[in-house]
Amino acid sequence: TISVLELGTGVGAVAMAAAIGLGALQSVVTASDAAATSLATATANVAINGLAIAVRKLDWGDDEDLAAAVSANGGPFDLVLGAALQFEKWEKRLPAALAALTHAGRRGRRSIVAFAHTTGALAATVEGSGARFEQLERSSGLAHGLHTRWSEAESDFEVVVLGRTR
Predict the structure, then answer these.
(1) Three-class DSSP category at 29
(2) Residue 50 — φ and ψ, nearest 5°?
(3) pTM of the predicted protein model
(4) Whose CA, among 125, 140, 147, 154, lies 20 to 30 Å from 67?
(5) What is the distance between the alpha carbons of residues 53 and 81, in angstroms, rounded to a whole number?
(6) Buried b or exposed e, range 48-59, using 16+ CB within 10 angstroms
(7) Is 74 helix (H, G, I), strand (E, B) or coil?
(8) C-alpha to C-alpha distance for 155 and 147, rounded to whole angstroms
(9) Residue 99 pLDDT more than 70?
(10) Averaged pLDDT of the chain
């Protein structure tokens, strides 16, 4: 079983894409957000699309919330996803949150984290709370269809994939 968590789900699009993309594999997908309106919207979108996705409140600044998410939804998670998470507001909390939500090695594989965000907002190595995540890949948003509204030849976004090494 592959356990997937989306942080800051908003409308649930990334979690739904993960559930559809992993459809042939046995997976447990959880969409999370701290905002009640996002949770309501994601819940409705998941239901409309007939997908088996858990939607739950998660404030990654709260250790009890993190522990509850891990115990209730198949965690620690094999894959953590997020898009436009405003790293400048929570970058100091990132290592502790990811350490709580992921594993360094389970069933012969380690957790992977993939974020789409503003170019340059995330370092190649994220370390803290006993965990270390190292960059596996970094690509321009253009490679994923993420361009600015002013030009299809420019992107303010990038996708960074990190692997947990401890």
Answers:
(1) strand
(2) 65, 35
(3) 0.92
(4) 125
(5) 14
(6) eeebebbbbebe
(7) coil
(8) 4
(9) yes
(10) 91
For residue 125, which amino acid is it?
Answer: T
Residue 156 sits at the vertex; the CA angle it makes with 150 and 157, to the nearest 5 degrees, is 130
- Roughly how many angstroms between the first and final C-alpha of the chain, as a whole number? 21
The Cα 156–Cα 142 span in angstroms is 9
Best-predicted range by mean pLDDT (15-19, 58-62, 101-105)? 15-19
* Helix or strand holding residue 131 (H, E): strand 131-140
Of the candidates 159, 131, 15, the one whose C-alpha atom is nearest the C-alpha of residue 73 is: 15
Given a contact cutoff of 8 angstroms between Cβ atoms, the answer to whether 135 and 160 are in contact is: yes
Find, among 132, 136, 138, the residue nearest to 160 by Cα: 138
Distance CA 32, CA 143 (A): 26
* Contact between 20 and 50 (Cβ < 8 Å): no
d(CA 149, CA 40): 28
- Helix (H) / strand (E) element for 42: namely helix 36-48
What pairs with residue 126 in β-bridges?
Answer: 133
